[in-house]
């Protein structure tokens, strides 16, 4: 199937086709009118030439003046009522049949094409017809010249029309192209890639596809925003209620020192929770705006993982969990150490939070064409219908493993933002009751690594 022409090409072809039809009609009409004028002038010339000769024949029928005539490109003949030739000019080798009408064009052997005029007259009581002929060579030469010019001017006119229509169409479509560009920019700001132009799609098709994607993305973003505001207000309501309750309780009457200390500890814990939520929201807002700035530097990724595991050790010890590591040594990576520690801590913290006591968490690091960090726990797992939503803000599966969900988590959303900032990706494999495996992959070239794969296996 042939690809459909673009709108610009179709408009140019339409303009050229219309102009071609108009030019062809104009040239044809002008040619036919010019041909008629030339033949009319030739006919009038024949009548004007024949008039004095006929007058002489009427005045002196016995004279043989026509037989003596020898004018270049002009031929004369007198015939009687029966068609017999009475007189004929010297330059006419053969008799010319009298024309059936007043004027007629015939091809005469030995002479060429002649324009003939048959003029009846009466001389000495005899009905005669005077035939005057003239060569059409000059008329045809003039018409040939006109046709030649038309063959030159016609394509030149079409080329000029194509050039003018190209400029006009380009200016006419410029607002559509600019509008498409603005819509594409909005789509990219909303975190999506503009739709690729399909084969055969014109400017209007691209504009329609771009706006369709923009509207779909806006609908999705508005829905996410509404859900986000609802979940954020729900999450903030609890610590704010606790803070208000504790302060109101303290202000109702005089309290003992231990009661003040207990209330302050509660207030401090809730303030930390609020601060953690606000910091997470700020990080995500920066990521949404494309302004999450990382400070990349060369580092050994296994060292960052070791530091993160050290930070998470008290959490693991509180649930009697082991953190097993199989880390390839000397994995040189260019990234932001602070963000990477935050990223790894999110996965470790989630694994500890959603795993039964006494289980283990296995962390592995390996690198070839890509760098892959894998976190494998023995927790409650995630149902398949929930997996597409685990990176949404304030979404998490309830710890009971049931189908009910509750809002609350920002960790995986922040993790995804950090991974995207490092041009990586996150994959999740999980089954309820059997645990989850999160794999973080980063594209990189290993500028330094040991010749053989060295696994550092530790337990803590």
Explain this structure:
The structure is a single chain. Residues 399-408 and 446-460 have low confidence and may be disordered. This protein has eight helices and 15 strands. Helix content is 52%, strand content 20%. With 460 residues, the chain is α+β, with helices and mostly antiparallel strands. A six-stranded mixed sheet has the order 13-14-10-9-7-15, with helices on one face. A five-stranded antiparallel sheet has the order 2-1-5-4-3. Strand 4 and strand 5 form a beta hairpin. The longest helix is centred in the first third of the chain and has 53 residues, at 7-59. The chain folds into three domains: 7-142, 2-Layer Sandwich (Beta-Lactamase); 203-288, Helix Hairpins (Orthogonal Bundle), CATH 1.10.287.130; 297-459, Histidine kinase-like ATPase, C-terminal domain (Heat Shock Protein 90), CATH 3.30.565.
Output the structural class.
alpha+beta
Strand content: 15-25%
Task: Point out poorly predicted stretches.
Answer: 399-408, 446-460
User: Class of the largest domain, according to the CATH hierarchy?
Assistant: Alpha Beta
